[in-house]
């Protein structure tokens, strides 16, 4: 006997599969640019690109802003485990999201791609490759990469959805 609930969920998952191209693109761009940085830059030697922008190859053994980078090695397992769990959760959420949404699945897809991009580094290298170095005069922002940018953009979109679009969706129901 056909199960209408399972059929509906199956259609939603098929429709949401299109969102998987975004994390795939983020992962490919992230790994490609990290490879270029790793093979063409000298470690910690800034290469001027534009005013306030350098390419500077750095290895981040911690999390965002090098949090816990000097913790002695156990943090690699913590961050690898967290990134793995978060990636599975994001994938699960993305595939079950209601049809018709744009900003929320885009946010989740970007964060998923960024999380996996950095997870690949942690698993294969034991650290995350960072190379984008933004600064203004003597004020330096911590180096980052394309995966970090995808996570940041996804987070911004998630906040926009949460604070502006979620209320609108609830009033339309």
Automatic annotation (TrEMBL):
GO molecular function: aspartic-type endopeptidase activity
Family: Belongs to the peptidase A8 family.
Species, as recorded: Acinetobacter apis
The reaction(s) this protein catalyses: Release of signal peptides from bacterial membrane prolipoproteins. Hydrolyzes -Xaa-Yaa-Zaa-|-(S,diacylglyceryl)Cys-, in which Xaa is hydrophobic (preferably Leu), and Yaa (Ala or Ser) and Zaa (Gly or Ala) have small, neutral side chains
Keywords, sorted A to Z: Aspartyl protease, Cell membrane, Hydrolase, Membrane, Protease, Transmembrane, Transmembrane helix
InterPro entries the UniProt entry points to: Peptidase_A8
GO biological process: proteolysis
Catalytic residues in the record: 130, 148
GO cellular component, one term: plasma membrane
Enzyme kind, highest EC tier: hydrolase
Keyword Transmembrane helix applies: yes
TM segment ranges: 74-94, 101-120, 140-160
PROSITE patterns (alphabetical): SPASE_II
Pathway: Protein modification; lipoprotein biosynthesis (signal peptide cleavage)
Full protein name: Lipoprotein signal peptidase
EC numbers, comma separated: 3.4.23.36
Purpose of the protein: This protein specifically catalyzes the removal of signal peptides from prolipoproteins.
One protein family per Pfam: Peptidase_A8
UniProt subcellular location: Cell membrane
């Amino acid at each position: 006997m056909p199960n209408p609930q399972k059929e509906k969920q199956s259609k939603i998952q098929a429709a949401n599969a299109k969102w998987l191209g975004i994390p795939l693109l983020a992962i490919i761009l992230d790994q490609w640019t990290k490879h270029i940085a790793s093979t063409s830059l000298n470690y910690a030697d800034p290469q001027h690109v534009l005013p306030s922008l350098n390419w500077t190859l750095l290895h981040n053994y911690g999390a965002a802003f090098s949090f816990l980078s000097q913790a002695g090695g156990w943090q690699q397992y913590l961050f690898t485990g967290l990134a793995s769990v978060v990636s599975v959760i994001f994938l699960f959420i993305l595939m079950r999201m209601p049809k018709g949404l744009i900003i929320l699945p885009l946010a989740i897809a970007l964060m998923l791609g960024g999380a996996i991009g950095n997870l690949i580094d942690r698993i294969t290298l034991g650290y995350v490759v960072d190379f984008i170095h933004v600064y203004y005069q003597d004020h330096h922002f911590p180096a980052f990469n394309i995966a970090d940018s995808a996570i940041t953009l996804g987070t911004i979109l998630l906040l926009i959805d949460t604070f502006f679009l979620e209320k609108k969706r609830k009033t339309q129901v």
